Structure formats: C-alpha cells, structure tokens
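Structure tokens please, single chain.
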Amino acid sequence: MKSSTIRLIVILATLSIVGITITQIYWVRRAFNLKESEFTRSVSTALYNVAQKVYEISNTPSPTNNPVKQLSTNYFVVIVNSDIDASLLEFLLRTEFEKRNIQADFEYGIFDCSSEHMVYGNYVPTSATKQKIIKKSSLPKWANGGYYFGVQFPNREAQLINQMGIWSFSSVVLLLVIIFFAYTLWVILKQKRLSEIQKDFINNMTHEFKTPISTIALSAEVLKDPQIVHQPERLLNYTNIIEKENLRLKQHVERVLQMARLDKEDIGLKREQIDIHAVITEAIKCASHALDEKGGNIITQLSANQSNINGDKLHLVSMMHNLIDNAIKYCTVKPEIIINTFNTGKSMVIEIKDNGIGIGTENQRRVFQKFYRVPTGNVHDVKGFGLGLSYVKTIVESHGGTITLISSINQGSTFKIEFPQ
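Here you go.
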C-alpha cells in the first residue's frame, strides 16, 4: 500500500472519529441539560404548589413574586409567611414529589427566625435507597430574612448520571471504537514499516549475492577457454576466486538460515565453561584478513579476573566476530578497535570501542532490530543484510546478558556487553 493511500486513510479515519466524538459530546451534554432542566421545572412546580398549600393552611396571602428560589443545582428555598410544622411540610413535599414522579432523595430544613439558623428537618430517601446508610448534611442558610424552608437533593448528580445509562453505554462504545482505531492504525503503520524493512532486506540481499555470482560467472567463462590449461598460475588464480566467492555465498546463506532458526527459538546452545578471553582472541583471528585490508589495529585490554561463563563457544565467537567486523566495515579511516574486559559485582563486562562513523541517536534504538540498517539512500558501499546486530543481541540475551550502545555521529561506537557469572 502506498504511503499516500495510508496517509489519506489515516486522515479520513481521524476526521471521522473526531466528528463522532464531538457529536457524542454534544448530544450527551444536551441530554444532560434537558434532564436537568426537566428536573428543575418539576421541582420548582412541586415546591410552588407546596408553598400555596402552606399559605392556605396558615391563612396568609401568597406573595406576588414566585416564592421558589433555586440557589444551586440541587438546592431550593421557598418563602413562606409564617412558621410551619416539620411533619406537615414533609407530608406536603412527599405528596407533591410523588404526584410529579420526582424520584430523588431529598432533605429539608426550616429557617427559625427567633434563633436565625436553619433547623434540620429530615432526610427522605426513595424506595431504592431506604436500606442504605444515610449521611445527613447541614443545609445552607439563605441571606434573606423571613420565614422559608429549604429543600436539597444531595445525590442528584449521581442519580442523573445513572438515568443516562444509554448515553454512558454509547460513550463506552465510542471509546472502544477509538481504541480499535488506534490499534488498527498502529498495525497498519507497523506493517508498512515491516514492508519497508523487507524491501530493504531484499535490495541488500540482491547486492550481496550479485557480486559473488558475477565473479563466479566471469571466472567460469575464463576457465572455458581450452588454452588456460597451458597457464597453470592463471588457472589456479581463477579456481581460488571461485572457491573464495563460493565460500562467501555459503556464509550469506548460512547467516540467513541462522536467523531463521533464531526466529523459531531453536538456537540449540551447546553450553560449556568458556573463557571469554579465548573467544575474543579467536574472533580477532577470524577478522584479521578484513582488518589487514584496511590497515587497522585492535588493542585488547583483557583485565577481567573471572572470565569464564557457561555458554556456547561457536555462537559467542560469531557474536564477537560480528561486532569486530562491523567496527571494521563502518570505518572510513584506519580502524582502531579497543576491546576491554573487566569484572563488576557478579558480572563480566566486555566493551568494544571503535573509531567508525557512529550511529545517530534516532537510529540507536532500532539497530538491534532484524533487517534494519541505518539509511544510506542508494549507497551500498557497506554490504550486509541488517542481521548482524540482531543476531548479537539474540545471542547475548540467550546467555542471560545485556547489551547497550553508546554512539554519536563521527565519534565512533561503544558496545557494552554484560554477562552474569
């Protein structure tokens, strides 16, 4: 899939999710406000009727203005012109609330003009909360004087949220859709990245196999000349070339097959007591030819007193050879490689430091990923499949160790390997 297509899909999907989210928030808020407005109107009407009955009972004229005042979302006060009995008030409130289907816990209090403070009346639960422990609260005092009573709905917000179950459900569904979209986007981008890595691997593999195949084909053409039998030195030279390039192809194939076995977690380590110093010496010997071609030098400072670990010698030598080979290949000057070993606590540490081109911070996290190579455009002067460091990390971890990288552009790289003992 093209990058432009993926980008378009991501943009359209993001806009769709954002649009749905905005719409959901709008309708949830609208529904919440409608519920709240409906509740406020019902309560105000019920309290107004209670006030009118209080006026009739006390035989006092009703005020010209609306006696019901809403002081907060869940607190109302009602002006009355005389003192009122708490039991009578509770009966009137129950009756009116039931008539208007107001199913919400409430508590009420009556203002005492003589002491000028609110006298708590009672907490009146609905049938659904009668068995619960009721926590009474003090009702706020109204600034205005005179007779009045207050009604508060302490659990109104929680009850309102419970009544909006369908909106809560739709919000959960929307959240799941967003999570699914994010996961799908992550999978798409991951697959795209894997596709790019696979493409780079195929390109690198093509270049790696192309050179030896071409060399073998050219040498075979020369050997087809009947007159070459009269030139033994030339015959031997081309025979050696074919043998060398054939060995090179074999190494490439074995490297790919080796990583395929690692994928199946079938490393098959043959563990024994191994001297890491002997492993380093053998790996240096394997890399000596490549090192001599570039006129490089390896300095060893093998200071570890305890250098034995329980491991697989073949894989450990191959691991060290990969690191030394990378230090040689990725160096534009004469390679200078320093290999240190030392003990710390119950671990043995190996440090391989080079003077190569270094690795940028943005690539250091990914260099241990399989098939990943630091981008160089169309330049293929350094051969490889992007398998070396992935193999190194796998072998280190299979031996219970850790590997870290310290590097910067044009300042070389330092690989630090720590094995438990």
